[in-house]
Structure to design on (354 residues):
DNA sequence: GACGACATGTAAAGAGTTACATGATTAT
DNA sequence: ATAATCATGTAACTCTTTACATGTCGTC
């Protein structure tokens, strides 16, 4: 009875503390988004599925008249999570970056378009770097590894920004040969 | 009549020169894989779809008794590609990395497991760095941007490897506090 | 009263992977 | 001979996104 990665992500989030679906989404968007995005369309069905499998338990916690279901991990869920977490097998790091595909085939276009595209990519990474920094300031005192991986995100976007800024500079200097 | 990213990727590959589906897969695996993976299961249906739309043309080029269909881009296809290529709008850089999700929730496990996981991630990036280097040597004299982006791939995997090697070192020094 | 955050869900469409099936050619 | 590479495709499945639908609570 294998779970999807999103399933394990939910289990991991609930091991830290009981959370609502909305709450898990917050964690995913603030801290995990860099290397694994999750949408509500996956999240709520997955919570039901995990509850049906007995890996998590639902509890109604309405705030006034506003409905709210808080889930907590069960011993079975903890076991499934531990099994998954201890797996050291190599898994690929998949990237999907439409802007890089565009750039890859940009030898079609004139030099100034190439420079503009490389610059736009660099800007995107600068913006992401700033986002990571503000996230780091907002969230303090959570699990140490969350902090570490936010640091990696910042580092990744900074080095990528520098690389594409340099590419734009080099393409610009070369001119329209 | 919008195309999928894979559709534009095919168009881009065929703008360089006429190619068979198999040939496009080779280019994708050697040079584009880092930021956009393509499988045969997408490729062949997409070639049919693009041919039906009149953006590419099929031509039979059997090698002896071995069937072979070579596609070439049409003027309509060139136009569609140029439109797509000139778009500077920001698009997200999506990463899906199961090993990083594991590491993110690894505060569950003991310190030695965390060190092992960080080390395994570093090793993966070192291996990818070597793959990129050997690819760079094998393929020479193609479009300049292909070379540039292979350079980015090498740079990305090297810096990632260094970062996770450093993390493993730090976690190890801290011990099992 | 309006807006933003909190809160939960479904349905349909689209994207992508995997496994399977087939067969020819070339190099060892 | 036999393994690797060239070559094309389909079917089933899984994953993921997007759009929609609904309603509450707190603050300006």
């Amino acid at each position: 009875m294998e779970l999807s990665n999103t399933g394990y992500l939910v289990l991991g989030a609930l091991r830290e503390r009981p959370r609502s679906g909305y709450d898990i989404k917050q964690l995913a968007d603030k801290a995990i988004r860099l290397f694994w995005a999750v949408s509500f369309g996956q999240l709520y069905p997955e919570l039901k599925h995990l509850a049906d499998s007995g890996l998590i338990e639902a509890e109604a916690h309405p705030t006034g008249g506003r409905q709210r279901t808080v889930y907590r991990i069960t011993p079975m869920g903890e076991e499934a999570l531990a099994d998954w977490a201890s797996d050291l097998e190599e898994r690929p790091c998949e990237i999907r970056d439409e802007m890089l595909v565009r750039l890859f085939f940009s030898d079609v276009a004139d030099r100034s378009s190439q420079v503009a595209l490389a610059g736009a990519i660099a800007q995107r990474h600068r913006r992401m770097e700033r986002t990571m920094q503000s996230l780091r300031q907002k969230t303090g005192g959570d699990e140490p590894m969350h902090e570490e991986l936010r640091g990696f995100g910042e580092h990744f976007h900074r080095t990528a920004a520098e690389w594409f800024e340099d590419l734009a500079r080099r393409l610009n200097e070369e001119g329209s040969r």
Remarks:
- Chain B touches chain A through 62 residues (CB under 8 Å).
- Strands of chain B lie at 19-20, 56-60, 69-73, 93-97.
- Residues 20-23, 40-41, 44-45, 63, 66-69 of chain B lie near DNA strand D (CB under 10 Å from a C1').
- DSSP finds seven helices and four strands in chain B.
